[in-house]
Design goal:
Blueprint: H1 2-7, H2 16-27, H3 30-33, H4 35-43, H5 48-71, H6 77-86, H7 88-121, H8 125-144, H9 147-175, H10 196-200, H11 206-209, H12 219-248, H13 254-258, H14 260-269, H15 271-305, H16 324-342, H17 348-373, H18 377-394, H19 402-439
Helix pairs in contact: 2-9, 2-12, 2-15, 5-12, 5-17, 5-18, 6-7, 6-17, 7-8, 7-15, 7-16, 7-17, 7-19, 8-15, 8-16, 9-12, 9-14, 9-15, 12-14, 14-15, 15-16, 17-18
């Protein structure tokens, strides 16, 4: 019986070092490699203030998120928090909104890495799309082979690449000739509000760490520490790179959007350095995709285990103790989105904008769950204040909010339908048992 139970559980392989590496690898990626350039091209020299505002906004959210992750570790992550607080239907709605974020954002990350490969090898759009598929397949294979290999790979990539990226920012800020009017006056910070939602995508990823809760060796201690340490390192990197991009590049340069970090060093040290950074950028994306695929597959696994998705996806490989079926379906869906992008139906900036706002709303869901689950006066005041700030911030998303609303309505419909079927099945079982009792 014990071995049977163990075969259905996920392997507990995460310690603080690996968790911090995973968090940084998930958060740093497209958020660092392309969004500073996209933001700069759209908001000009006011863009850097979006990074400052989003960093401040995410602090209370991460406090709440870290508290819930240490108290309620599960493969369900944010959806697990909501399910614990409000029941299965609310959990199902959250899962659908999460999938809407993952299945747009993660292919966007792959396309970002492919753009760096395109910069390196002078590829056309078809070649870039094929490279994106190849990066997704690589992440899928790494995850399919097991958590020990993917976790160790993540640690090596994340820590090494963070050091290199910090050096890039320092070199640009110290040795480059500043671009005229590189930074807007502080009183103009509010003019960056149209890009708040898009830039917030760069501050997503910690919610993915929550899907690995079951795989922590000591979640109560290690989960909050991993969140705090990774947040400090990520914010320092983001601000350094955002300043460096505005300091050295023009917002009208095509490379500012496509591969800004490569363009920074090419501008400072010459063309060969841009190619070197392209290689580094691809490695960062590989680390990012590894962690993101890990988290996304656990979402599908948890959703299937809870009965929202087909039970087929809840299977755990008895030897490796990983959900290999969920990994295969996850990667296949990512590839499908890249194909849709490739035929011109889904621009990259829309993928990030829609995904980023969904991730922000999922932080809001976590805050609401926190209010329900953590009952004390501090939690009530802190949680309500955070909810109000989140709602004000969400107002900047405009009509794009229709996307998560439609997803939520779909999740609600499926959840209600499944609940009715379950109730109908229970009623039929009770009727059958009563008939058998009468016959006896």
């Amino acid at each position: 019986m014990e071995s049977e139970k163990r075969s259905g559980e996920l392997a507990q392989t995460l310690n603080i070092g690996r968790a911090v590496a995973l968090a940084m690898g998930i958060v740093i990626g497209a958020g660092l490699l392309v969004l500073p350039g996209l933001a700069y091209s759209q908001a000009g020299n006011k863009a850097v203030y979006a990074w400052v505002v989003d960093a401040l906004i995410v602090i209370p959210l991460l406090f709440i998120f870290g508290t819930l992750g240490s108290r309620y570790p599960s493969a369900g992550g944010v959806a697990g928090f909501v399910r614990t607080a409000f029941g299965s239907i609310a959990g199902g709605i959250t899962e659908v909104v999460l999938m809407g974020a993952f299945f747009l954002g993660i292919p966007g990350i792959a396309l970002t890495g492919a753009n760096y490969l395109g910069y390196l090898f002078h590829l056309g759009q078809l070649g870039i799309n094929l490279c994106a598929v190849g990066l997704l397949v690589f992440a899928g294979v790494l995850n399919y082979l097991g958590t020990q290999l993917s976790g160790m790979t993540q640690q090596i990539l994340s820590y090494g690449l963070v050091i290199v990226l910090a050096a890039v920012a320092v070199v640009a800020l110290v040795f480059a000739h500043p671009h005229p009017n590189a930074i807007a006056a502080p009183q103009d910070w509010l003019k960056a509000s149209p890009i708040f939602g898009m830039v917030f995508f760069a501050f997503t990823g910690w919610e993915m760490l929550s899907f690995m809760g079951e795989e922590f060796r000591n979640p109560k201690r290690d989960f909050p520490i991993a969140v705090i340490v990774s947040f400090i390192l990520v914010v320092l990197l983001y601000l350094g790179i955002a300043f460096a991009i505005q300091w050295t590049l023009s917002p009208h340069n095509p490379r500012t959007v496509e591969a800004p970090i490569a363009a920074i060093l090419a501008n400072v040290l010459g063309g060969w350095s841009g190619e070197l950074v392209s290689v580094i950028g691809v490695l960062i994306i590989m680390a990012n995709l590894n962690g993101a695929t890990w988290a996304s597959s656990r979402l599908l696994f948890s959703s299937a285990r809870e009965g929202f998705l087909p039970k087929f996806l809840a299977h755990v490989d008895p030897k490796a103790r990983i959900p290999r079926r969920s990994i295969l379906i996850t990667v296949s869906t990512f590839i499908l989105i890249v194909v849709i992008h490739g035929i011109g139906l889904l621009p990259l900036h829309e993928m990030f904008s829609l995904s980023g706002q969904n991730f922000f709303l999922l932080y809001l869901f976590s805050v609401i769950a926190y209010l329900r689950l953590v009952r004390n006066i501090f939690a009530a005041i802190f949680g309500l204040g955070t909810v109000i700030c989140c709602l004000i911030f969400a107002g900047s998303f405009g009509t794009l909010l229709l996307y998560p609303v439609i997803l939520a309505l779909f999740g609600l419909s499926v959840g209600v339908l499944k609940a009715k079927r379950k109730e109908h099945h229970s009623t039929n079982m009770d009727t059958s048992e009563n008939s058998l009792s009468k016959d006896k």
